[in-house]
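Troubleshooting entry. The earlier prediction with protoporphyrin IX containing FE gave an output that would not parse, so I re-checked the input for stray whitespace and re-submitted. Clean input:
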Amino acid sequence: MPLFIIPSLSSYSQLTGYFFFPLFSMETLTLFFFFLLVSFLFFLLRTNYRTRWRLHHLPPGNFGLPFLGETLQLISAYKTENPEPFIDDRVSKYGTVFTTHVFGEPTVFSADLETNQFILQNEGRIFESSYPSSISNLLGKHSLLLTKGGFHKRMHSFTMSFANSSIIRDHLLVDIDRLVRLNLESWADRVLLMEEAKKITFELMVKQLMSFDPCKWTEKLMREYMLLIEGFFAIPLPFFSITYRKAIQARREVVEALNLVIAERRRKGQSEERKNDMLAALLDGDGGAGGFSDEEIVDFLLSMLVAGYETTSTIMSLAVKFLTETPQALAQLKEEHDEIRSRKSEGKALDWKDYKSMPFTQCVINETMRVANIISGVFRRTTADVSIKGYTIPKGWKVFASFRAVHLNHNCFKDARSFNPWRWEKTNSGGTELLNMFTPFGGGPRRCPGSELARVQLCVFLHHLLTQFSWVAAEEDKLVFFPTTRTKHRYPIIVRRRESCTSTPS
Ligand code: HEM
């Protein structure tokens, strides 16, 4: 529908001639033409979308306002405490697959289990990963999250070989145990759990990637890293956004620091004993196409730090929050860990057998990731016209597979919006029903290569926390879901050391 009544040509020429200027100032005129232009573009856009809707048989939905689409509705919806307001609302209107327009482009959202699985499994065929430019510019083009085709396959399996069960068991577990205990040593009174968890997972990743123990260098790297990550949620225009400018500068600093480490390792070469870390494996190359360039190694290390640090630390602190609010689960978990500790001599590190005897801990971790995973879903782009549920998604469109919408769907998980770790007990005795609907680590060719490593880090952290401390929440702290899942005040807790603490690092 036209927004303005446009005068006929003859009256228009009269207007532009003699009478017009005395009646309207230049500013009013400019404004008038600007609105005219915007409504014309809006009209074109609408017509274009309507035609597409008719021609392509798109999933039902709404494109919202011109240019902005439904972006503002999405952002304001996720600022509430409700975990899935934007999707819930549209699922009830249009069904589990719907069309919207967010962050500058038309996007099809899926809150449907089968569709999500179809999207994940067809990665590299009719879908490819797609991140906003704010993220891709900061990660670098060789980041595993952004690479495609053969290079992605090669790097993904390379990462899997670094973080698989036997490497964790034989090499990584001992450092995870030691660094977690070192961090907990300094805990007293009030602790900002989210900050502490971030510090722990950052130090763990740096150790596993480059063999550095915590020091001034790692502290500086972490500060730059946090600035870099803040840029992910900023407008990717350095001229308009200070946060984004700072993030770009931080990326430069991180790249420079990593380049120095690589140069030092290359220089020492054969003269030093080979380190058992990811960087050593990258410097060796993987036997294919002449190894990796420094630029590739830097982007790769940088993206591994991003992928493995905020994800795991969020689950660490949210697991503690949910346990604090569910005393029965906390008591059962404490029992599981006290039992493990009672079998070990004082200060002895956890081993693989201990890790494998934490069934209820795995239930708590699953339930935390189900209720409040930091990765609520993944964006993809279609590389061909794609048929889904009788609809067609045109080539080049964005698609969002929402894992959280499935995880919080009452038809998939009974009483889905409450924290109930006992629901997972069946899976410990071989039940697969829930696991088939559970995708906290994604799926298909891009499934998280760090899933086992994350689980081990979470188990070790919970073990030492439970066996060394009791705690209470220092204040009420609510969950928020935008731009990332976290608690509003970084979850402060008051900790007290338990009498029977026997866990000093040896
Ligand atoms: C609880 C902790 C974690 C969660 C919930 C998580 C979740 C995910 C998800 C959902 C994806 C798939 C992204 C996509 O399909 O586009 C992913 C990818 C990835 N994750 Fe994790 N992750 C966690 C921890 C880790 C850790 C500790 C590492 C470090 C080794 C890691 C490294 C990666 C990498 C490198 C990718 C990219 C894989 C690719 O694109 O091929 N993640 N993660």
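This one parsed fine. The first strand starts at residue 97 and ends at 102.
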